[in-house]
Here is the input.
Amino acid sequence: MSHNTFGHLFRVTTWGESHGEAIGCVVDGCPPGLPLTAAEIQVFLDQRKPGQSRFTTQRREPDTVEILSGVFTDDAGQQVTTGAPISLVIRNVDQRSKDYGDIKDKFRPGHADITYWEKYGIRDYRGGGRSSARETAMRVAAGAVARKVLPGITIRGALVQIGEHQVDRSRWDWEAVGSNPFFCPDPCAVAEWTTYLDGIRKAGSSIGAVIEVVAEGVPAGLGAPLYAKLDQDLASAMMSINAVKGVEIGAGMASAELTGEANADEIRIGNDGKPRFLSNHAGGILGGISTGQPVVCRFAVKPTSSILSSRQTIDRHGKETDIITKGRHDPCVGIRAVPVGEAMMAIVLADHVLRDRAQCGPR
Here is the structure.
């Protein structure tokens, strides 16, 4: 299975399966001399790990990260990066492979089961193997390393829609995101979402969601005009996340409804002598290059295909059958995709910061 690496100068390779002994990643290209400890990475993994509320899978994984290489204790007693590849590992401790025994020969509709079988002629039915969203834990770990390359840049994500229920942007409060199980920035929406998702969960069904990730403090000039556009790489990064079916930057699809006058982000000179944009429909990127405004990206996550409702399918022998997926699954996988989206934003920005530094020198 090829193509397990993402990035150019800052490169992330992940490995492992959902029900294997462990999952891990190698981060290559991280500059030397950056302070890095497992505890700093763990902060972000704790936001993503399962079993933290009734609205996520009840698989009990502590997701404790270990740093195997790429760091050294300097003369001051601080653990810092050496410039060598950073190898990270998380041991799997709560696999229940028997939950998947009933579907080992069947393909879940809406799942990668059938495409993995068609391409490779073999698949790991235990939790989806390599196609499992468990792989994203290592993206979050790598994203924590990437943030070390981004001093002065703040990356935050939020869940802005579950099913048909959207947040009220007039009530947006970043402080509220960490105080509810949905990463919701609208405090008033939490009660409605709780009732709604309880109904989905008790029915054994699932629902999709939309996540928004915002990076503030991004300098102007990251990216390139043609085949290394910042928004191009962001779209690729977000689309690579399990279950993502749509990505947009700034106004995104809604820009099709705007006139040229409404879409234009007018410009003035700020008090600091730098350009000041009066709006941000472009999402902080023009012509593939960052403008210095907040970079705004949203992505849509489909409902998980592992549900208790009987669905029509076929098995690997070519026979028609029905399928019900038992076990422990997220009723809304989009909830835990919030820290994953943040991590992918960090990885892309770290890569572009290093590429920009290589071509243009320090800004």
Summary: The CA atoms of residues 238 and 341 lie 7 Å apart. Helices lie at 38-48, 113-120, 136-147, 189-202, 230-239, 260-263, 337-360.
